[in-house]
């Protein structure tokens, strides 16, 4: 026999079995004592109810509360959260030089590679891999160039992306 023949046989058997189960259930008997009481006829149709005689619900007395704001111990919501991240104030020396202001003067090779740079103050500084400037970090020193990694932040001070900037010794 095919699967479809078995399938239909099982379905028909289930329907017949379910029918017997429903027929075999005893009817739900109602308790005669639990019947709802019969409606009583009105005692007197001449009874008249006036609105003034009905009991009234109590009216709650509203207390007048005035809201007062106590700013003690809270911050001003109109002051920027990025107050300490002022980009115009820069420290003196190499830590205050931006990558765009760096001029590569030379590369010294010896006990390690050292880049010789100048900034807007025309003072020469020595940098090694890992040293930082105001807006980036020196990541690589090659024979004819240095590579900085600049971290760009979004408006909330979170790191958005990293950008590699190359400064060449002698640009042709």
Can you describe what's shown?
The chain has 172 residues and is an alpha+beta fold. It has a domain at 93-168: SH3 type barrels, CATH 2.30.30.830. It is built from 1 helix and 7 strands, in the order αβββββββ. The protein has a 4-stranded antiparallel sheet, with no helix packed on it. β4 (132-133) and β5 (136-141) form a beta hairpin. The longest helix has 22 residues, at 3-24. The protein starts with a helix and ends with a strand.
Tags for this entry?
three-stranded antiparallel β-sheet, 1 helix, SH3 type barrels, 172 residues, 24% strand
Give the helices and strands, then pairings:
Elements: H1 3-24, E1 103-108, E2 114-118, E3 124-127, E4 132-133, E5 136-141, E6 145-153, E7 159-168
Antiparallel strand pairs: 1-2, 2-3, 4-5, 5-6, 6-7
Can I get a quick summary?
This protein has one helix and seven strands, in the order αβββββββ.
CATH architectural group of the domain at 93-168: Roll
In one word, what is the shape?
Answer: flat
Structural class estimated from helices and strands: alpha+beta
Percent in strands: 15-25%
């Amino acid at each position: 026999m095919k699967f479809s023949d078995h399938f239909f046989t099982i379905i028909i058997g289930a329907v017949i079995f379910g029918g017997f189960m429903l027929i075999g259930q005893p009817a739900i008997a109602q308790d005669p004592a639990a019947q709802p009481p019969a409606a009583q006829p009105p005692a007197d149709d001449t009874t008249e109810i006036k609105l003034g005689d009905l009991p009234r619900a109590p009216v709650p007395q509203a207390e007048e509360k005035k809201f007062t704001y106590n700013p003690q111990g809270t911050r001003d919501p109109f002051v920027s959260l990025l107050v300490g991240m002022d980009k115009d104030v820069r420290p003196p020396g190499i830590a205050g030089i931006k990558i765009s202001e760096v001029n590569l003067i030379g590369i010294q090779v010896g006990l390690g590679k050292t880049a010789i740079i100048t900034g807007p103050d025309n003072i020469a500084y020595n940098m090694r891999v890992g040293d930082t400037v105001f807006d980036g970090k020196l990541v690589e020193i090659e024979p004819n160039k240095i590579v900085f990694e600049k971290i760009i932040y979004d408006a909330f001070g979170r790191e958005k992306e990293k950008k590699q900037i190359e400064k060449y010794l002698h640009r042709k």
